[in-house]
Every structure is written in structure tokens, then in C-alpha cells.
Design a protein that fits this description.
The chain has 602 residues and is of the alpha/beta class. It is built from 23 helices and 16 strands. The strands form five sheets. The chain has a six-stranded antiparallel β-sheet with strand order 12-11-15-14-13-16. A four-stranded parallel β-sheet has the order 6-5-7-8, sandwiched between helices. It has a two-stranded antiparallel sheet with strand order 1-4. The longest helix has 23 residues, at 539-561. The two termini are 60 Å apart.
Length: 602
């Protein structure tokens, strides 16, 4: 089965933004592509949100769900309470739409949340009013504890998540043969469907639901008008409507729906959201082990209303307000709401996860912590490979995606990163290669900026235009950088022409009784321009020119033999022109000839 989050390799662009954004660095960069590592991923979906090239994808389950709904079995929809913040119309319209999609019934996941609340309160009553558990409501937090804080696994809630409890409760009411499909804003719920089949069977995102409605040509605005005209077309929620537990998707909503919610000081429970805050809390617990309160930990900042596939065009304040008003309407409306099931809750407390794990299946084994145990010598060696030979070179710039150079070195040792990810290393290597090229190339080279100041040059350039008969060292060359190029090169105005063109231009420059072949090229358009100065009056170049032109003469003469007599006169004229150019090449310019550029013919 495809991982819930995967990378489309052909679309990955080497930006490492997903590495920077991943709270647990579960991204492996291999051959330049950033791949999600299944065993390390906690399914928060942040990499999907921030990937600029949309290379991170969410597994689509819509086609399988559509077949599932059409299978002839009774299929129930478990609808997340965050839907009130996602869809700008009444829930009644959405229930009608889901029924038209083929669901046998629609039930609120908040029913399972109420059962979880009831289990927590029942446990607290028998334990001096306390329940020092970490909530299992957020599957991302559960994955984070299991994979990165294994010492805290025993502090996870003893009852399954609200969705798993809801699925189990629907099966208890309507039979084990029914199907359950969850619809909500969470990618990690797909993991619950994968790991505990049937609890639920499938999990769809709101994006997938919208795609389904569009495919079936179901218009929610039109349904809203129908419901307004005749409310009797709205099917009843099964087994009935949920109450205060519909506030679950808001940070603190779980606690507010418990009896502890009436305590303004929250002395028995704490609500925290956002990956940084959650990670800090878990790290503190692992070090101190002093937690005595119930912890409502949610990976998404602000709660599930800001899930990874929730609407991005609506503010958190608006979403929270919509959720709060919806919950208040449930409490104040004179309609039956779910009040719990004491016998089922007793089974939850007694059996825990055994209610959703079949006898012939094994619950997922906790994955060991990914804290590396490399020696200091190994890390130091890796740092040297990354070009960090001492502490001063550890810039900790974060360009690679890791918080420090040492973290990057550990990731490299773990096989999660490549040396090419180090921006400073690659820049140094590129600079070093450019320096070697500039210093060894047998022609004069200069690079200037848009102020016509020298950015870089080599000794051959200074020997041509600086009247030097010796070579300068690197530190001495640095003194030249920043000087105006007009101090060295006559007719420097030609540099300005190159700033408006990306084409390579060549000229022949007559300068102080020598001929120079000049090649202008753009290094960075409208910012940096380079020029190569090649002395074509040197004996070596003269010989090469003579050989080339002589070969041209011979070749043309051979071709002439094969042509008709009428072309002999034309060829003779060309030969005369070519030989005259040879004479011009070796001709010493008269002392009175002016210096300047001559456009080279291509």
C-alpha cells in the first residue's frame, strides 16, 4: 500500500524546504530528491503544505471508497466535527449530500469523543480526580510519542482515539459487517485506517470529499436551498446528534467538554497545540517525569480546525468562532443529543485497544527512538567531510534544513542527508574551482559589477593592462578588487553594452602595438559582466592562425578543382582576400594607428 504521504520524485526541486519544516526531520535526501521515510514520519502533513513544487503528495483513497460505498454493504460516514469550520453552510445540507453519495447513514465522530470523555471521567473518579494520560485524539501526537519518546508510551491514553471508539460503537450498534468511512482534515487518520482496519475502513480528506461531490455533480448551495424550503428531506444523524464534544477540534475543546472544563484554572488538565509546543512538552516530560495532569496535545496549531487539508482561506479566529457557535447551538437546541453509554465505556476501560485489534492481528509495535548514538569522533569526521574543519566554520546557517551543522553531520551519518546539501560547502567548492580557473587560464580575465568596479581578475589581466611583469599573490590581488576598471582598460565603455545583453560578443582590440581578442559575456544579467583578453599577436597564436588559414586555402583549392570553370574567377578572388588577411595578421601596425575595438566577424 502507498504511504499516506509520498514524494513525486520528478517534481522535487532540491530546495530542502521540507527538511527545514519537518518537526522530526523524517525526510531523507537521496540523489538530490527529498523522500519521506515511513518509519520516521508522524504524518503531520507539514511537508505537504510547504512544498513549493507540490512534490509531496497525499495518498488518494477516493476511488477505493467509491467502490466500497457501491459494494452493497451498509456504509456509515464518520463526519469530523471540524466540518462546521470547513463548509460555509448548514451541516444538514452536508448530511443530505453525503446520503446522496451513497452512505447508509451519517454519524458524528464527536459521538466517539463523548465516549472517550466518559471513559476519562470514569477513570478519574476512581483515581482521586486525576487522569495523567496523554490524549490519543491526535494520531500525529500518538505517532510522535511511539517513535520519538518511547519512554512515554505508558502515559498514552488507555482508550483508543475518538474515531476508533466511534467506529467500534457503530459496529456495536449496527453490526460488525458494516463499513465506516471517516471524513475530516487529517492525513494521519489514514494511518489509523491502515493500522486498525475497520476502525475505520477508510479515511478521506475534505479535499477528496469536494472532488467526490464535483464528480457526482452535487451542488451544496442548491441543497442548502432545498433544505431551507423543506427541512424534512434531511436524514437524522445516527444514532443521534452529539453535544459538547463537537468542540473537540478547537484547542482546549476536549477539556472544555469534560467536567474539568468548569474549572477556570484548569488544575487537572492542560491543552497544548502546535508541533513545537508539543515536542517541548514531551521532551520536558521525558526529562522530569512529573506530569500529573491530563494532556490534550494537538499537532496542528489551534486544533484540528487548522488541519493540514483544511481550508486555508479562512482565519483561525473565524474557524474557532464557527465551531464554538455550533457547539452552543447543540447544547441550547431542544433536540435529543448523545448522553453516552456507560456499559460500552466500561468495556473501553476494561479492554482498551483490544476492542479494535482482532485476535489474529497484532497491534503495531512501537518503533525505537531515532536518537542517534554516534561518537564525537564520528561526528567530527563527518563535519570535516562537510568542510567544517573547526568550530569557526560551523555557521549553523540552516540552509541544509537542519538547525545546526552538527545535526546535519548526524543526519549524514544516519544516511538521511547528502554533503551537497551544505550550502556553504558547495559555495566554497564553487569559489575554489573558479579561483583555480582564473589563476591558471592563459588569458586575461576580469569581472566587473554594474558600477564598473572590479569584482575579480587574474594576473594575466594585470600584466596586460597594469604594466606588471610579476604575479601577485591572493592577498595582493584582493587589493585590486573594488577598483574602477577604467583605471586599467581603455575603452571601458564597451562593458556597459554587455549589461543589457546576454549574448557573447567578441571584438579585436588594438592596444599599444598589440592585437587582443576580447570576449564579453554576462555572468549575472544586469549585474555582473566578464571579459577575456587574449593576445593574438603572440607567436603561438600567429602559428595557429597561419595553419588554420593555410588549411582553409588548401581546402578551397581542392573544392575548386571539382567546380566548373565559371567559378574559378570567384574562388581566385576569395583566395586573394584570404591571403591578404594573412598579411594583415602579421603586419606590424603603423605607429600612428589609433587604438580601439574592431567587431569580430562570426
Amino acid at each position: 500500500m502507498i504511504h499516506p504521504i509520498f514524494t513525486e520524485l520528478t517534481e522535487c526541486r532540491d530546495c530542502y524546504k521540507c527538511v527545514r519544516g519537518c518537526p522530526v526531520k523524517a525526510i531523507q535526501v537521496k540523489d538530490g530528491s527529498a523522500v519521506v521515510v515511513k518509519d520516521r514520519c508522524i504524518y503531520c502533513g507539514h511537508c505537504v503544505d510547504i512544498c513549493p513544487s507540490h512534490a509531496k503528495k497525499i495518498r488518494g483513497d477516493l476511488s477505493r471508497v467509491r467502490q466500497f460505498v457501491q459494494s452493497g454493504r451498509k456504509i456509515f460516514c464518520s463526519l469530523a466535527p471540524s466540518c462546521v469550520a470547513e463548509f460555509p453552510f448548514s451541516i444538514d445540507s452536508l448530511v443530505v449530500a453525503l446520503t446522496r453519495l451513497g452512505f447508509s447513514g451519517v454519524s458524528e465522530t464527536a459521538i466517539g469523543a463523548h465516549l472517550v470523555n466518559q471513559a476519562i471521567e470514569m477513570y478519574a473518579e476512581s483515581h482521586e480526580g486525576t487522569c495523567p494520560w496523554i490524549s490519543s485524539a491526535c494520531p500525529t501526537v500518538v505517532q510522535m510519542v511511539k517513535k520519538y519518546y518511547p519512554s512515554l508510551i505508558n502515559q498514552l491514553s488507555k482508550v483508543p482515539s475518538p474515531l476508533q471508539c466511534h467506529s467500534a460503537y457503530l459496529r456495536a450498534l449496527y453490526g460488525q459487517e458494516i463499513g465506516v468511512v471517516f471524513i475530516g482534515p487529517c492525513i494521519a487518520k489514514k494511518v489509523e485506517a491502515d493500522q486498525t482496519p475497520g476502525y475505520p475502513d477508510f479515511a478521506l480528506t475534505y479535499e477528496e470529499l469536494n472532488a467526490w461531490l464535483l464528480a457526482e455533480q452535487i451542488d451544496l448551495d442548491m441543497i442548502e436551498a432545498e433544505v431551507t424550503a423543506d427541512s424534512s428531506i434531511v436524514p437524522s444523524l445516527v444514532p443521534c446528534r452529539a453535544g459538547k464534544s463537537t468542540l473537540y477540534p478547537v484547542e482546549g475543546g476536549m477539556i472544555a467538554s469534560l467536567k474539568w472544563g468548569s474549572d477556570p484554572f484548569q488544575t487537572h488538565a492542560v491543552a497544548i497545540s502546535g508541533m513545537n509546543q508539543v515536542a517541548g512538552t514531551l521532551s520536558g516530560m521525558e526529562k522530569e517525569d512529573l506530569n500529573t495532569a491530563f494532556l490534550e496535545l494537538l499537532a496542528c496549531e489551534g486544533g484540528c480546525i487548522n488541519g493540514p487539508v483544511s481550508s486555508q482561506g479562512r482565519s483561525s479566529a473565524t474557524k474557532k468562532s464557527l465551531s464554538s457557535r455550533y457547539t452552543r447551538s447543540r447544547i441550547t437546541d431542544r433536540v435529543p443529543i448523545f448522553n453516552g453509554d456507560a456499559s460500552f465505556v466500561a468495556k473501553l476501560l476494561d479492554g482498551g485497544y483490544s476492542l479494535i485489534v482482532k485476535n489474529n492481528e497484532q497491534e503495531e509495535k512501537p518503533v525505537s527512538s531515532f536518537i542517534s548514538s554516534h561518537s564525537k569522533e564520528e561526528i567530527d569526521q563527518a563535519l570535516k567531510l562537510l568542510g567544517k574543519r573547526d568550530a569557526a566554520e560551523e555557521l549553523n546557517c540552516g540552509g541544509c534544513g537542519y538547525n545546526s551543522c552538527r545535526e546535519m553531520a548526524v543526519a549524514y551519518l544516519d544516511g538521511m542527508a547528502e554533503p551537497e546539501m551544505c550550502v556553504t560547502k558547495m559555495r566554497k567548492e564553487a569559489q575554489s574551482k573558479m579561483d583555480v580557473l582564473l589563476r591558471t587560464i592563459p588569458v586575461g580575465v576580469v569581472i566587473v559589477d554594474d558600477q564598473l568596479q572590479i569584482v575579480d581578475c587574474n594576473n594575466n589581466f594585470l600584466k596586460l593592462f597594469g604594466d606588471l611583469d610579476f604575479s601577485l599573490g591572493p592577498s595582493q590581488l584582493n587589493l585590486v578588487f573594488g577598483l574602477p576598471v577604467k583605471r586599467f582598460v581603455p575603452f571601458y565603455e564597451k562593458f556597459m553594452d554587455q549589461f543589457t545583453s546576454s549574448m557573447v560578443r567578441q571584438y579585436r582590440l588594438h592596444y599599444e602595438d598589440t592585437f587582443l581578442k576580447v570576449t564579453f559575456f554576462s555572468v549575472e544579467k544586469q549585474h555582473l559582466v566578464g571579459a577575456l583578453f587574449e593576445d593574438i599577436t603572440t607567436p603561438t597564436v600567429r602559428r595557429e592562425t597561419v595553419v588554420k588559414k593555410a588549411e582553409d586555402v588548401i581546402q578551397r583549392s581542392l573544392e575548386t578543382v571539382q567546380k566548373i570553370a565559371s567559378l574559378l574567377g570567384e574562388n581566385a578572388a576569395e583566395t586573394e582576400i584570404m591571403l591578404n588577411s594573412l598579411i594583415d595578421t602579421f603586419k606590424v601596425p603603423p605607429s600612428g594607428e589609433q587604438d580601439g575595438y574592431t567587431q569580430e566577424e562570426s
